[in-house]
Amino acid sequence: MTVTTRFAPSPTGTLHVGNVRTALHNWLWARKHGGRFLLRIDDTDLERSKEEYVDGIRADLAWLGLDVDGEERQSARFALYEAEFDRLKASARVYACYETPEELDIRRKVLLSRGLPPVYERKPADAPVPAGVAPHWRFKLDHDAPIEWADMVRGLQHFEPKNMSDPVVRRADGSWLYLLPSVIDDIAMGITHVVRGEDHVSNTAAQIQMFEALGAKPPAFAHEALLVGTEGKLSKRLGSLGMASLREDGIEPIALVALLARLGTSDPVEPVTSAAPLIESIDFARFGRAPARFDEGELALLNQKILHHTDYAAVAPRLPIAIDEARWNAIRPNLMTVAEAADWAAVFDGPFDPPAAADEDRPMLAAAAAAAPGIDWSADPWHALTDAVKEATGAKGRALFLPLRRALTGRDHGPDMGELLPLIAKDQVVLRLSA
Ligand code: GLU
Fold first, then answer.
1. Considering the entire predicted model, what is its pTM?
2. CA of 194 to the centre of ligand 1 (A)
3. Which of 170, 192, 212 is the last residue of a domain?
4. Are 65 and 187 members of one domain?
């Protein structure tokens, strides 16, 4: 059986880090097993679903490198749902209900006030049917079949259907709620593993009986703990943190993937430059039950670490022409984002105005300006330059290196000057030192 997973977003908004994490785990699992990863657009809610969000979801998955092996849309599958619904009607596993929301609400309150679970009470088969009212439909849980599954994250799960309400699967206007179409699709698409957030655990209990009522074996389930912000809560920021804003902040897709793949698991978050080790290591048994904390600071730091060993070829199309492979290798240990590489183009080739030097550094810089033209730039110019200045002025250590670094790069920190200097044009060096 080919391992088949699906990511099933509703196109009613843009993806945020929480649902991207679910998509990623589904993708990693499929790739680990040489299986298939499907995108299922859950657009049964025609009012709220928007085409621009569908496009956004596709674009975000592509940006993250989560390639899909197929795409389905629920809005194109209503005929199938209708046919399967008819089957359930014929076997009396769905039934018509006529209560208004107000009636249900009052009944719930009565039950609660008596200290009873607010479970939906089925009507006797011969209860009168109100005239002229279109029914909504519930799935009839089998009260005699306790529900159990071995969740890949949570371990053995047990539910007593007697304590559960028969879930509504279809509204009076004929529109579908999420539960049943999802099961029909999971069967039709051969889904072997459903990976989703733990907010779906009680849905799963009802859905397992739906799989069985439709004559199918339920897939395996992995319900992951939710993602929370640094404050330990489901933060608003997290719920709206989209790929566009991360991209704007210079976050590389692989950095987000590296973080989300391992966050909340017992495997360490590592600065990988490809998804291969993440595919290799994904194991739901190593996922924790506690909420996973997402920290934007940790993401920025991981992004930086990843850039430090990112090959030139991987970023070349996004770099200014001036930044060739040697220059990239020299500056990458000092970058927070790829975009910052552009700041270095002027350091290498000019135009560049060195900051005004302190008076006490001027004689030393003048000595450097005098020595530079005679230095062989193809050997080790930094060594030669500092030796010449040392000899001429007696300057050494920090008093020698820092003013030179400032004059040549405009910064107090940066790449090793021995590596950097041969990459800066010699006439530029002379110009800066004489300024
Ligand atoms: N559209 C559902 C959601 O976004 C899918 C849940 C599932 O994976 O089954 O919650």
1. 0.93
2. 10
3. 170
4. yes
- How many domains, the chain? 3
Interval 158-192: pLDDT, tens: 999 999 999 999 999 999 999 999 999 999 999 99
Cα of 95 vs centre of ligand 1, distance in Å, is 24
Q: Is the CB of 10 under 6 A from ligand 1?
A: yes
Contacts 24+ apart (CB under 8 A), 216-221: 216/187, 218/149, 219/186, 219/191, 219/192, 219/193, 219/194, 220/150, 220/152, 220/192, 220/193, 220/194, 221/149, 221/151, 221/152, 221/193, 221/194, 221/195
Residue 242 placed within a domain: no
63 with 181, same domain: the answer is yes
- Tokens 């519930």 sit at which residue? 138
Predicted pLDDT at 317: 96
Range of the domain at 224: 4-71+177-228
Q: Say yes or no: CB of residue 182 within 6 Å of ligand 1.
A: yes
Tens digits of per-residue pLDDT, 103-149?
Answer: 999 999 999 999 999 999 999 988 999 999 999 999 999 999 999 99
Q: How far is the CA of 200 from the centre of ligand 1 (A)?
A: 8
196 lines ligand 1 (CB under 6 A): yes
Does the residue 146 lie in any domain? yes
Task: Say if residue 235's pLDDT is above 80.
Answer: no
Range of lowest pLDDT (63-67, 240-244, 260-264): 240-244
Q: Which atom of ligand 1 is nearest to the CA of 7?
A: 8
Tokens matching residue 335? 């970058």
